[in-house]
Records
---
Amino acid sequence: MNRLEEFNLLSAELEQIPDALTGLTVRAKRRLFRRRLLFRPLLGLVGLFLTFTFLVNLSPTVARAVSNIPVLRELAKAVNFSTSLTTAVENQYVQPMNLKQDENGITASVEYLIVDQKQVNVFFRLSSSQYGKLYADPRVRAADGSPLSCSYGQNYFNWSADGENLQSLTIDFHNDTVPSALQVSFSVRDDLNRPEPLASFTFLLEFDPQFTATGKKYSVGQRVVLNGQTITVTDIEIYPSNLRLNIREDDNNTAWLQNLYFYIEDEQGRRFYPPESGILASGSIDTPSMTSYRTESPYFYDAKSLKLVITGATWLDKDMERVHMDLISGTVERLPQGVEFLAAYQQSEGWFLTFEVPYRAGKPRQAFFDDYYDADGKKCTFDSWGGRSTGEGSEVLILELLTYPYDDVWLCPAYSYDWYIQEPISVPLI
Amino acid sequence: MKYEEFAQRVEAIRTRLYKTALLYLNDEHLALDAVGEAIYKALKNVRKLRDPAFFNTWITRIVINECYNELRRQMHLSNSEITEERAEAFDALPLKEAVQHLPKELRDLVILRYFSGFTLAESAQILSIPQGTAATRQRKALSLLRLELSEEVSE
């Protein structure tokens, strides 16, 4: 076969396009907007690289527990963002690793893991005498390098510009369990705009089976009526890294549960609250509801019984999933509780919709989802949105519809109203 | 750029992006992963694209960067010159491997020009090189590969 024949053959071979190529854009959109995951950002969210000094306040209990194990003192500092991980370190629930690679004057090391059936926390370090700030850009794959169904994010709580501190990466599994091993890669740059990384490191992390086996599921099956809506607590899962409360909503409910306000309490009165950062809840992409909620873990407390204590909820009425707005008259059919429509104005670029949105717990809350529907019923995504604080416990939200040709738009509220109860409702779990 | 327009533009070029990635990475799985990651990064940064007319060259550059990230992880990067002594061994390689063993600047151009369907001008834009340089590299690459294809020097 001559070269030209080879060329024709290779060109024909390249025409065989896999089916998996279709759908990559939709997957990218879901990944970008993460609609069905309630996520409380850590200080220093991925993409925001702030240099700050973090004052560590180790509790006396933690200090005593780890003082006999000098190497874990640094780890105790690195897990300060999570009560569950702090307790895990206290109980020496740690898999030490001793993996190190060098490239181009940069050293990457993976030093500890905290692993259970559903989550992997990787503690690593990047250092160099040649470069200043180093950014990790992590990727997670299966052990054989193939894609893995999980979500992951770097925690910037302990990041420092000089690379001295241990950094951490949390890898979360929703439906699947943690495999026996996986691959973590770091593409290291000193400048986020640099196209090619300074160095790339790939580590194969093999987990001690005693850790990947830890965790237990308890069947609950308790029905409870909240504000006329029926939910069933189906089961709870308890792992060292978190507790997962799984629920199911009754088909006859007139509203979707958007958020549940609660804590878990054991027989000694110890309370386990939703975490301060990271994933708070997850839901299905088919409905707006959230069906699995997380709290800090009671795993190491050996509780004899647990109960769910509900203090309130946020609901989205099923007849409020889309609300009509007349852009010309500036009227909107219905708004989430506490949200005020300010103005709709048109400029050369398009339409700008402004609302005043109340804060909740000192932070702006999400008033609308990032999708909307145009006059043809087509689902679209806002071109951009922005917000600025009013300085009075609320923010002005601006939604942009660039080159939008219609006079009407249908917005998708993120909630209808909050509901709080005077006497918390207790539900026995185990 | 609205998401719908972004999705349409990606739809129009995704086959070319995949072919580009496949020739760099020689693995269907990795090529899909690289294209998926590139689409995600493009969507995240689409507001930085000043002129939508450059969308194709812009997103192709992102795909190539992702491929180099992956090759670097696999330690497969090689930028050695083809010497007289190696030329004979090079000739004996199957075409696909010969393309992958070309020096980086020649490999980039050959993949874009002859397997991903870009014109000389588009390829020069993607690689951020003058069109004359692209034409020279094109000629050299075809010579090394012993391939007689249309060079399309002027557009």
---
Amino acid sequence: MNEVLKRLQLFLKKLGKQIFSLLRRFSKSLLPLWKRLCKWFRSLFVSTDDKDAKLLTLYKQPQTKSILSSLISIFAGIVLGGIILLIMALTSGGSTSFKSAWEGFQLIFLGVFNTGRDASGNLSFGLNYVSIGDVLFRATPLILTGLSIALAFKTGLFNIGAPGQYLMGTAATFIVALSIPTSVVPSWIVWTLAFLSGILAGALWGAVIGFFKSQLHINEVITGIMTNWIAANIVTSLFDNLTGPFANLLDPSGTKNKSYLYKTAHNGVQTAKMGLDKLFPGSQVNGGIIIAILIAVLVYIVINKTTFGYELKACGHNRNAAKYAGINEKRSIVYSMSIAGGLAGAGAALYYLAGNTEFYWSTYQSLPAIGFNGIPIALLAYNNPLGVIFSGLFMSYLNEAGMKLKYLTPFNEYITDIIIASIVYLSAFSLAVKEFLNGRRHKRNVHQPETEKKPQEVIKDLEAEK
Amino acid sequence: MVYLLQNTILYTVPLMIVALAGVFSERSGIINIALEGIMVMGAFIGVVFVRAIIEAGLPFEYGQLLLILGILIAIVGGGLFSLLLAFASINLKADQTIGGTALNLLAPAVVLFMILDINDQSVLKVSNATEYFMLNQSDFGLGTKFENPLGVIGNVLFNKTYITTWICLIIFVVLAIILYKTKFGLRLRACGEHPQAADSVGINVNKMRYFGTCISGCLAGLGGFVYAVTIDDCASTGDVAGFGFLALAVMIFGNWKPLSIAGASLLFGLLKCIAAGYAYIDINNDGVFWLNELKISSHIYRILPYVITLIVLAFTSKKSRAPKAEGIPYDKGMR
């Protein structure tokens, strides 16, 4: 027994010695580790003679300036909205007070996190899953139309025909999703077919604009406007409740009485929820947002990492130079407009395949606003596909805040439209802001050449060395 | 037939004026996509002014004077609103498409916000507007419709018309003459074709561009107010149904020249009115509605103006002469 105890004691002592020596070695290297950490932290902020501070290097990159000026214009736009609310509160006498202006301002900033009013009548804030889910749901078509216009801008074209492509995508999606009976074909196949046909319809419609631009040299703005209205009329004529070939898809139930199409859920075709409805219960969110983000990443990869994307960008920068370099610029224009059209059609497909969105078929008098809302989204994101994700989410967030404003305060929801418009206007200042930000750095660097030696002094030094 | 011609003129006139607005701006070198927004703003400002005065109680005889005052106010309002675009494009050298799109988004938002704030509905209406503004036969001293039926031309010119039509036509002719026959017009056009050359002669390019954009805004505001009074029955809805973009198309279709623009607007107006009322057009008053007999779907009629534009553009695009320096911010250092 004593033997065992003695052996145990010896073993424990050895273990203790080993742990202790490990700790000593560790603490010996810990101090340098801590020193390294301090050094790294210092290098973020302090510039030496050889290297700029890391944050300064990040700041000097052009993308940072773009993001910064975007953020500045967003902030300025929101402040402008707050000022307008304040002016409304001041000038409208007694009906709206400062309290409601302050509440309105809070709602603009934190609209998604508002959970209504509590018992004492104040706004309460928390995690409003329905709001967040709805923001994600409504961001899906906005991201995709933003991508469509951003891609067109990157290739030098102004895709103002996005609403027309959106409408053609809508029509194709509904026709395919509602015509194929899900009792015969599994619903996921119908969903895929409808999605692909939406993309294809949008792409073909965009190719029309591309064809007119590349072959006939007609400005794509005018072709876009014309094709918008032609598409609106074509879609109306397809679903016309008296003479349209697809009039059987109209929903005669309830008060609608054949003014709306059947929702796609009527045929059992719905986008898979992909677990998002557990995350945001009660909202309309579905897997569409994930598909939209994946498409945005795909577009980013194609544009920036493939030869094909490089050709498209080259044609956008200088059409003649691209032709001289051997790129078939006519085909590139058609391709880029088709892809842009396909993206807009995909936005329409995802929005309506959610299953519970209705479509009013008589659309020949007004174009869908979602198509035009893609323009500020693309502009805010500087046409970067990954940035479009964020600006699409931001615009959807502002729209949701506007709805909350309408329901909870005496203001109306157009204040968010004013904010979005002023953000876009202020982002036009971004070039001036960038030059301002650049100008400060330039002034600091002006002093450096004076510390360099003049050439005669250098020669004198060399001769002195001999 | 009379109905067709009356409505055609009502639709043609604002289209002509707004397309001319686009011409003035683009000829001075600024792409003005904001025509739609400025129209909305001009319509709103004019309608608010007219509504305020009518609600304060105005006898019917002063209706035409009120209309002229409303036109002036809409012109000033449109000009001021377009200064935003001018400032962003000229001083800050921003992308003119962005500035135009921003104004297109800003105007309906501000207008709808104010409309909802003023009367809690989404439309701002003026009651009895036609009694104030519309001119009938009897106003010209030609007796009523039943006593003295005029022919087609007489009905079109003197019955159910507005003085805005004549005012706009006069303004159109005067401005076209200014653009082509005066010193100011030549300098304006020079700034859009080759601003460096203009600058070397001593023309202040930025000032000329400001003038061009301001005149463009004034005309677009006028066009918007005329649209609201004649087509929308003196109501401001915050939306002009794509009219501004259509005017852009007419401008490109008319090759940036006033006479072609007038012809293109007439064509668009005619086709649009045929589309709206083809079942009731009785061309030679013999009781036969010929177009209705052809049984062409109404959708084809509605598509017709746009398809014809595309076809004509396809054939005439070789001669398309846009102002050469439009869209490029003027930089003195690039001479």
